[in-house]
Amino acid sequence: MSDIFRIHVFPAQRGDALWIEYGPAATPFRILVDGGITKTGREYLIGLIDGLGDPRIDLLVVTHIDLDHIQGVIALLKDLPPEVKINRVWFNGWDQLPRPPLQPHGVAEGIALSKQLEARFKPAWNCNAGGSWIGVGPDGAPRNIALPGAMVATVLSPDNDKLLALRDIWDDVVEEFGAAAEAEEEAEEEVQQPIDGLEPMGADEIDVAGLAEGRFQEDDAVPNGSSIACLLTFKRKSALLLADAHPSLVLASVKALSPGQPLRADCVKLSHHGSKYNTSLELAKQLESPRWIFSSNGATTKHPNPEAVARVLHGSPGKKELLFNYRTKYNEMWDDATLMEDHDYTAVYGDGVKPMVVDLLP
Questions:
Q1: How far apart are CA 146 and CA 151, in angstroms?
Q2: 17 located within any domain
Q3: Most buried residue, 87, 114, 157, 181, by CB count within 10 Å?
Q4: pLDDT per residue over 8-42, tens digit each?
Q5: Which structural domain, as residue segments, surrounds residue 123?
């Protein structure tokens, strides 16, 4: 029986939702990384789980507390049949965050996901860390976690400092999260409307080197910095999944894993949907991959930013395939024969309806 290592990139609008299967094709192990917005959970994830012959998720990863990553998981768990098993959950909520010495615990989570996990999946919640936080080691080194079926997850982010920063503003983050959840339906409607603001450039206007080498400013959003980013390795194939992680921490972890040369992965899901603040040229130079996944429909954010795409093309060595799960006015300029020839890449676009499927094993 042949093995698979397959990633389904759901059309999660402005968010992330990845369904990963690996191991025997007939009875694969399963990982769900984030759930997109509520609509993603309702329209894709619930039906997917209902259709499983063996109702089991081996690992659920909720990378961080952002609406476009977490709301679909909340919707899924709300309607999850009681027979469905989730064997491991990775999510750094309030009770998992590190705290300074002598500072007491005891603040309410304030989000539905934590209540759901506490009620049904408490033994599975961060069980790979003894109930503590999922992140790099105390010394900042990437941390290997063995998963069933000979999969290894190497955690590259977050670290203690990123989580302490989240703890410091937790009440504000929860309040903003709640306000964003209330406005979610309006945000979904916006997908169907023209997006105001800076119009994207055409292919004939793109100076890839100039964009790549321009000034870089790192994302400073605290929730993004708390993202769980990891390298999944199975059968010598690997997928680097960067959530919305800060590039400086990812870069430090990558250099630790592959000192002196770029880290090779068989695919990379770019941080923060291809934001120019989350992919630096230095990071791109330290990564080598034939496939680069951009998960975004561009609504409200205009992701992916051309600077991030340019840094991948200009910085990372080797031929590349750019995988966009939507075709939008913010990414269609990369579907240009001259650009492809000049920068040694191809571009593939999803239809925004079905998940894109990335097979890492033949």
A1: 6
A2: yes
A3: 157
A4: 999 999 999 999 999 999 999 999 999 999 999 99
A5: 3-98+108-185+200-359
